[in-house]
C-alpha cells in the first residue's frame, strides 16, 4: 500500500539521514493532523516554544515540519505575524473546490485504467474508507478519501499531475473535515448518507474496472461537485458559525444592487 504522503515527502526531501527523515516525518504528520482537525485553528500563530512545550516535539524536526507545511500551503509566514496556520476565507475555499473539480476531471481523462494493481489497491483503500465513515472517525475519513483519489492520480503516470492532485487533496482535507464535523455535530450522522458517499467511490471503481472513460469522467466530476455543494449547504445554514472555520462573514453576504 502506498502512503498518501510518505513517498511524496520522501522524494521532496532526498538526502536527509534516515533518522532525521523519520523524526521530521512524524512531526510533519502530527502538526498536519492538528491543522486538519482544527486543533490548530486557521490564522493561529505557531509559537515555537508553545509547540515544543505542548506537543513534546524536538526543535529541529519541528522546524523542518513547519517548512514542509509551508510548502504544502497549510502554514504561512509574514514579517508582522510570524508563522501561522493558513487562514481560509470563503472565497479561497470555493476557489480551492473549483480547482478540485477540474483536477478530478483531468485525472479521470488521462489515468491509466489498465495499470496493474490499481483496482485491488482502490478496493483495499475503499474498505478502510468505509470503516472510517461507519466509525465517524472524521480525520481518518479525510485521509482515506485523499488516498483513494491520489491513487487514481498516481495512475496517470505523470508526476506533475500527481503532485497537483496531491496538493489539492491535502488542502481540501481541512475543508472536508470541517464539513463532516458540522454535519455530524448535532445529528451524529453525515448530511449526505454514508451509503451515497460509499456509492460514489464504488461507481468510480466500477468505471475503472469496465474501462469506461466517459462514465469515469462523469462519476468523478459528480463526486467532486457533491463535495462543493455540501459546503454551500452549510454556508446557507442559519446555525453555521463561519468563524469556526476562519471564514469571513462579509464574504458570505449577498451583493446588493
Structural account:
This protein is mostly helical. It folds into two domains: 7-85, Orthogonal Bundle (Arc Repressor Mutant, subunit A), CATH 1.10.10; 90-238, Four Helix Bundle (Hemerythrin (Met), subunit A) (Up-down Bundle), CATH 1.20.120.530. Helices cover 68% and strands 3% of the residues. The chain is built from eleven helices and two strands; from the N terminus they run ααααββααααααα. The protein has a two-stranded antiparallel sheet with strand order 1-2. A hairpin with a 3-residue loop joins β1 (75-78) and β2 (82-85). α5 runs antiparallel to α10. The longest helix has 29 residues, at 159-187.
Briefly, what is this?
By secondary structure, the protein is mostly helical. The protein has helices at residues 6-12, 18-36, 48-55, 59-72, 90-110, 118-134, 138-154, 159-187, 194-209, 213-236, 249-252, and strands spanning 75-78, 82-85. The chain has two domains: 7-85, Arc Repressor Mutant, subunit A, CATH 1.10.10.10; 90-238, GntR ligand-binding domain-like (Four Helix Bundle (Hemerythrin (Met), subunit A)).
Amino acid at each position: 500500500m502506498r502512503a498518501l504522503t510518505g513517498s511524496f515527502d520522501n522524494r521532496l526531501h532526498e538526502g536527509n539521514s534516515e533518522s532525521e527523515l523519520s523524526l521530521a516525518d512524524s512531526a510533519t504528520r502530527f502538526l498536519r493532523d492538528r491543522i486538519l482537525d482544527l486543533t490548530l485553528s486557521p490564522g493561529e500563530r505557531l509559537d515555537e516554544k508553545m509547540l515544543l512545550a505542548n506537543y513534546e516535539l524536538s526543535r529541529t524536526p519541528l522546524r523542518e515540519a513547519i517548512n514542509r507545511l509551508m510548502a504544502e500551503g497549510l502554514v504561512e509566514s509574514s514579517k508582522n505575524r510570524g508563522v501561522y496556520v493558513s487562514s481560509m476565507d470563503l472565497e479561497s475555499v470555493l476557489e480551492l473546490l473549483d480547482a478540485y473539480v477540474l483536477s478530478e476531471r483531468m485525472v479521470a481523462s488521462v489515468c491509466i485504467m489498465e495499470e496493474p494493481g490499481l483496482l485491488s489497491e482502490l478496493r483495499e483503500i475503499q474498505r478502510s474508507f468505509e470503516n472510517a465513515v461507519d466509525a465517524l472517525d472524521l480525520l481518518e475519513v479525510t485521509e482515506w478519501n485523499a488516498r483513494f483519489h491520489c491513487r487514481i492520480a498516481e495512475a496517470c503516470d505523470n508526476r506533475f499531475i500527481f503532485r497537483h492532485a496531491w496538493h489539492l487533496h491535502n488542502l481540501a482535507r481541512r475543508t472536508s473535515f470541517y464539513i463532516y464535523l458540522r454535519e455530524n455535530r448535532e445529528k451524529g450522522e453525515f448530511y449526505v448518507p454514508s451509503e451515497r458517499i460509499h456509492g460514489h467511490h464504488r461507481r468510480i471503481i466500477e468505471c475503472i474496472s469496465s474501462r469506461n472513460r466517459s462514465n469515469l469522467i462523469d462519476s468523478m466530476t459528480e463526486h467532486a461537485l457533491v463535495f462543493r455543494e455540501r459546503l454551500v449547504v452549510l454556508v446557507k445554514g442559519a446555525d453555521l458559525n463561519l468563524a469556526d472555520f476562519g471564514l469571513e462573514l462579509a464574504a458570505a453576504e449577498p451583493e446588493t444592487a
